[in-house]
Amino acid sequence: MKVEDVKKIGVVGAGIMGRGIAQVCALADYKVTARDINDELLEKAKNDLIDGRFGLKRALERGKITQEQYDLAIKNITFTTSMEELCKDVDVIIEAIPEILHLKVKMFRELDKLCPERTILASNTSGFPIGAMAGATDRPDKVVGMHWFNPAPVMKLVEIIKTDLTSEETVNCIKDLALKFGKTPIIVKDADQRYGFVASRAYNALVRECMLIVQEGTATPEQVDTALKLGYNLPMGPFELIGLVGKLGRTESKTA
Fold it and tell me: φ and ψ at 134, to 5 degrees?
């Protein structure tokens, strides 16, 4: 499948990442179906997609999008609890369910049965091996990683992860799709020995060393953040980022 053949995108999981991805897809003028397990989660997703910190309304108020783009995105998104509705006539599925490997494998097995043969199945996993999900399907050539970064409407990087069986056509389609979303894609190999691909692995190593610096009493978390921001021009220190991600996660758990 080529990018020009993509008309409908399905997003599995309407949490923080899923609804952000759905928002980006809809703004790029794709028909999007976002699926989650119950109406309460879908209602939360709808409200956050429109009124959330990185939602459409805030983007409109800041001049990031026009009223026409806002209206188009709203029109393009459908929410459902039905797997059948999600998979009907879909060209690309982006899986964004919780980061639990056996759940993802089960989901890919079900998607493989319900989706048309042409459908590309992409996982937003931060670091689980794509091969494990591809092995649950009869279409390993159409299974690929598409790792977005939080918040999806803002962050530019998308890691595209290919296995030994992922076809070049699939990789190129997802790469071109990321470009249409205004993202910067990098194509990397699947990793089955460690958790993470490029960004997550490198950042986890940084965080481990920063934790050790604090545990040894060499510096405080605030000093570490200052050193890395001023010394390496990072926009945010690791402890600041950990605090922000934790805050977003707590907000999600209270409202979902």
Answer: -60, -35
Provide the b/e sequence for 43-73 (b: ≥16 CB within 10 Å): ebbbebbbebebbbeebbeeeebeeebbeeb
Gap between the Cα atoms of 111 and 52, Å rounded? 29
Token representation of residue 144? 């690929």
- How far from 164 is each of 130, 134, 135, 167, 171, CA to CA, in Å? 10, 10, 12, 8, 11
Q: What is the largest CA-CA distance in the chain?
A: 58
Which residues, including other chains, have CB under 8 Å from residue 145's CB and lie 6 or more apart? 122, 123, 124, 125, 130, 159, 160, 161, 162, 190, 197
Instruction: Tell me the per-residue pLDDT of 185-194, one tens digit each, with 9 for 90 and over.
Output: 999 999 876 7
Non-local (6+) Cβ contacts of 139 within 8 A are 112, 117, 119, 121
Residue with tokens 């919780």: 98
Residue reference for tokens 């405080």: 220
- Cα separation, 3 vs 169, whole angstroms: 10
Residues 107-145 pLDDT 10s? 999 999 999 999 999 999 999 999 999 999 999 999 999
Per the rule left: phi > 0, alpha: psi between -120 and 50, beta: everything else, 13 is: left
Which fold would CATH assign to domain 3-189? Answer: Rossmann fold (3.40.50)
Residues of the chain with CATH 3.40.50.720: 3-189
Other residues' Cβ atoms within 10 Å of the Cβ of residue 161: 28
Q: What is the pLDDT of residues 146-176, one digit of tens each?
A: 999 989 999 999 999 999 999 999 999 999 9
Quote the CA–CA distance of 6 and 15 in Å, as a whole number: 24
